[in-house]
Structure formats: C-alpha cells, structure tokens
C-alpha cells in the first residue's frame, strides 16, 4: 500500500520526539507510568474481589438448605467467576455486549 502525502506528513511529525522539551517528555513518561501502575493495581484488586465472591458463593452453596439459597449462592459464584474472567481478559466485559 502506498501512503498518501498526508500520512507521510503525520508520521514525520509523530516520529520527532527531539522537538519536545525535557519537561514535556518527563510529564508524558510520568503519566504513562502512573497509568500502567494504576491499571495493574486495579486488575489485581478486581481479580481478588472476583475470587472472593466465587469462594463465598461456593461455600454458601454447600451450606445452603433450600433451593432459593442454592440459587443465590450459584448466582454469586458465577458473578465472581465472570468478574475474574472479564478482568483478566478471558471473556469480553459486559460493556462490549451493549
């Protein structure tokens, strides 16, 4: 594919980081690092909440004495399993279904 002249101009402007000042580069790297750290912490926390919900649902299922309680515990366990799988990217999140 042959790039159009406007594509060539855009790529030349994007590949010139030498035109940025040290303060701008520092701010960009700092924001990117902060975003990466917060993303990792969020993934770990959401995965932990999902695992806890799953374990609570499974333990409630074995301690349940009625069909209503069993149904609720299965729903909690499946919700925790879904939350963990969606957080880790195994299945698409619910916002992509709408």
Helix and strand arrangement:
Blueprint: H1 5-14, H2 22-63, H3 67-87
Helix pairs in contact: 2-3
Write a short abstract of this structure.
The chain has three helices and no strands. It has 98 residues and is an all-alpha fold.
Descriptive keywords:
single chain; 98 residues; mainly alpha; 3 helices; elongated
Helix content: over 70%
Percentage of β-strand residues: under 5%
Describe the global form: elongated
Q: Main β-sheet: number of strands, strand sense, barrel status?
A: none
Contiguous helical run count: 3
Query: Kindly, what is the distance between the CA atoms of the first and last residues, rounded to a whole number of angstroms?
Result: 35 Å
Q: Classify the secondary structure makeup into a structural class.
A: mainly alpha
Number of strands: 0
Detailed description of the structure:
- This protein is mostly helical and 98 residues long.
- The chain has a domain at 43-90.
- It is 74% helix and 0% strand.
- The chain contains three helices and no strands.
- It has helices at residues 5-14, 22-63, 67-87.
- Helix 2 packs antiparallel against helix 3.
- It starts with a helix and ends in an 11-residue tail after the last helix.
- Residues 1-21 are annotated as: Disordered.
- The chain crosses the membrane at residues 36-62, 68-91.
């Amino acid at each position: 594919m042959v790039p159009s002249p406007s594509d060539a101009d855009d790529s030349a402007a994007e590949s010139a980081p030498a035109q940025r000042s040290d303060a701008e580069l520092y701010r960009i790297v700092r924001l990117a690092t902060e975003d990466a750290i917060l993303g990792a912490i969020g993934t770990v926390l959401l995965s932990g909440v999902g695992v806890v919900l799953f374990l609570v649902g499974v333990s409630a299922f074995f301690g349940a004495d009625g069909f209503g309680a069993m149904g609720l515990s299965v729903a909690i366990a499946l919700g925790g399993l879904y939350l963990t799988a969606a957080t880790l990217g195994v299945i698409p999140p619910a916002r992509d279904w709408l």
